[in-house]
Amino acid sequence: MNLRSLVEIVNKGQFIRPILNYVVHYLESDRADKNKSVVNYINVLKLKWDVKYDEALEIIDEELQGLKKGGLHCLFLDQKIYILNRIKQKEGVKKVFDELKDNFDNIPVYVRGLIVETLKNIHELYYEPDESMEKIRYWSKNYEQNLGDKGFILLSKARGKKNEERYDEAISLNIKAFKVLKTIPHPSGMVQALNKISWWLKDVNKEKALAFTFPLGFYLGYYFDDNNFNVFNSLDTMFQVQKNNKDPLVYETAFIFSRLVSSLSGDKKKIIWNEFEYTIHDVRRLVLNIRNRNYLNTKTLRAFIRKEIGKEKIPIDSMNISERTLKEFLSAKTKYIQPNTLRNILDALEFKINTSTPICIIKELKKKDIDKKFEINLEKFKNLPKGRQISELFTSYLVHYYKEEIDLKKIIKEIEDDSLIEERCDYYTKELINSIFERNPKINFDSLLTTVQKPKIYTNKNITFKEHPFYLGRKEVVKRFVRDLDKKNLKEFIGNYIGLDIRQKKTVEKFIMNYGRYYDLKDIPKEFTPKVPKEINPFVKKYTLKRKPSAISFYVFEGEERGEFVEITGNF
Predict the structure, then answer these.
(1) Can you tell me the distance from the alpha carbon of 61 to that of 77, in angstroms, rounded to the nearest whole number?
(2) pLDDT for res 136
(3) Which among 131, 142, 152, 302 could disulfide-bond with 117, CB atoms 3.0 to 4.6 Å apart, if both were Cys?
(4) Which domain of life does the protein's organism represent (predicted)?
């Protein structure tokens, strides 16, 4: 195994995981004994990405005892210092730091880019700026030519500027780092750059911090699976910034974050709970469920309505509800209040929205916003050719977390029968159709940096709920798969998908999502580029999928998952 080539691939970060899976598959089928240490290094990377730090450290320490000092030895040390820093073992971090720093001149040149990036970050975190680092050359033409090294060194410099409270310079460096890392692409680095911008600005310029949550959410949804640590970390940042700005997207961010946490199990659940316990509790009070049902008549809701009615001195006859209904509600004689009754009350009032506004009021405002948009979008939808209606609906369906609430088979039948009317559509269906007509605004980072954002004040009269950028990013990914899918076989594909159980559907969705994510992956050595396995070749051919993204997406699966996917494709 050529270690230099492996380092070139590893420089692309965890996005390259399916390539590494393919490499492991190849090495283990070739000379497993000869390639054991290289395979273990790849396994350490994967364990680190999966936040299984104890298992990773166990392999690292075993390998360091048996390896001679050289490139691979340094690569294991590089992973060790990263993990020790994550688990906050400061003394262990400094020990490895000193070992790498003191032996820097003996580190193979092709490994130095990774090492210098790590050492620079650790130095910024643990040492005073004037402490000596003269043994390490932070910059050279070699680092300049390696875009991964260059991007992360820029991120490290940005952290230094932030520590000096030179925020404009720090943000500018992070944007430069993002642009460099996007050319690779290196999604972890890209999201890290955007996340830091929003996080650093949230207490010094909250409006500008909010502007950067849009690209952060977009690239987060575009590149990452639900269980990736980057997703929780970045959604946490988005939630805090949106809450500070009283932005309506905070409710959707809360919903996504809450759903992802509820799907966790085992060690990952413990780690995420330990890291984000405060946020997890905070998001739950802001989670919207747009199912149309009566609301509990709570003390908080009554106090809010009573206060707003009294403040504006609204006459009862302007509320489109009876005096008796209002009195029984305000006196708590009725246990529940109907959605239409609450909406009639809200329509007669005008008040500012913030995160202490009762959640049932936000639900009604969101449903009203959905209804308003759907009135326009249903006609647009019906004017599309039927094949396009089905493909657009399926694309929109695949990226949302409430898809289990929707009877996809029923809606497709109604499209074919021309019987899809507003009365047949619940709010989940309406929102899916609305999302078809949401467009991605172009992201101009230079404009985000220079534009002065004015604070927005949202009231029940002007509030609107835009599509969350997390969904917009995922929609772009799914579109690539649906576009390549032979339209003659689209209905058959959807029918076969509908016939799967929940676990099988999730597996197919994972393949679809990663097909789009790896669509344009370049600069992978030919010998490391996966080929379509013969087991899924009939599936790929039948649905006219492109071979390279199909093969790479297949190797996103690991262990038994691959066998399960092969079995599922037999149903297609």
Answers:
(1) 9
(2) 52
(3) 152
(4) Bacteria
- For 327, the 3-state DSSP assignment is helix
Rg (CA), the chain: 27
Task: Write the pLDDT tens digit of every residue in 250-307.
Answer: 999 999 999 999 988 887 888 889 889 999 999 999 998 888 889 999 999 999 999 9
Give the C-alpha separation, 75 to 522, whole Å: 24
Q: Do 540 and 512 touch, CB atoms closer than 8 A?
A: no
Closest by alpha carbon to 466, among 556, 373, 559, 327? 373
Q: Given its phi and psi angles, is residue 51 left (phi above 0), alpha (psi -120 to 50 degrees) or beta?
A: left
The tokens 């097909």 sit on which residue? 515
CA-closest candidate to residue 298, choices 285, 289, 311: 285
pLDDT at 135: 45
For the beta carbon of residue 284, count every other beta carbon within 10 angstroms. Answer: 13
Q: Yes or no: say if 146 and 113 are a contact pair by the CB < 8 Å rule.
A: yes
Note the pTM of the prediction, 2 decimals.
Answer: 0.90
Q: Domain residues of the chain, as ranges?
A: 3-143, 485-571
Count how many Cα atoms sit within 13 Å of the Cα of residue 183 in the half-sphere of its side chain.
12
Token pair, residue 135, equals 């043994």
Torsions phi, psi of 126, nearest 5?
-115, -15
Q: Is 151 in contact with 189 (CB distance < 8 Å)?
A: yes
Scanning the structure block, which residue is given the tokens 């990774």? 114
Tell me, what's the pLDDT at 129? 57
Is residue 301 within 8 Å of 359, Cβ to Cβ? no
Look at residue 139 in the predicted model and tell me its pLDDT: 46
Beta carbons of 279 and 257 less than 8 angstroms apart = yes
Here the tokens at position 320 are 């489109």
Q: In the predicted model, what is the mean pLDDT of residues 213-227?
A: 93
- Contact indicator for 201, 162 with CB cutoff of 8 Å: no
> Tokens in use for 18?
């399916």
Express the helix, strand and coil content of the chain in percent, nearest 5 each: 70, 0, 30
Among the residues of 31-70, which ranges form H helices? 36-49, 53-66
> Could you give the CA distance from residue 291 to residue 9 in angstroms, rounded to a whole number?
46
Lookup result for tokens 């989940």:
428
Residue 101: partners with Cβ closer than 8 Å, 6 or more residues away? 119, 133, 135, 136
Nearest by Cα to 317 from 325, 308, 329: 325
Structure tokens at 404: 């289990």
First to last CA, the chain: 37
Report yes or no: 318 and 292 within 8 Å, Cβ to Cβ.
no
User: What are φ and ψ of residue 127, in 5° steps?
Assistant: -120, 155
Can you tell me which residue has the tokens 């070749």? 537
Q: Which residues contact 543 (CB under 8 A, 6 or more apart)?
A: 484, 485, 486, 489, 493, 572
What sign for the dihedral angle of Cα 49, 55, 57, 61? Answer: negative
Alpha helices, DSSP H only, in 383-426? 386-399, 408-416
Average pLDDT over residues 2-29: 86
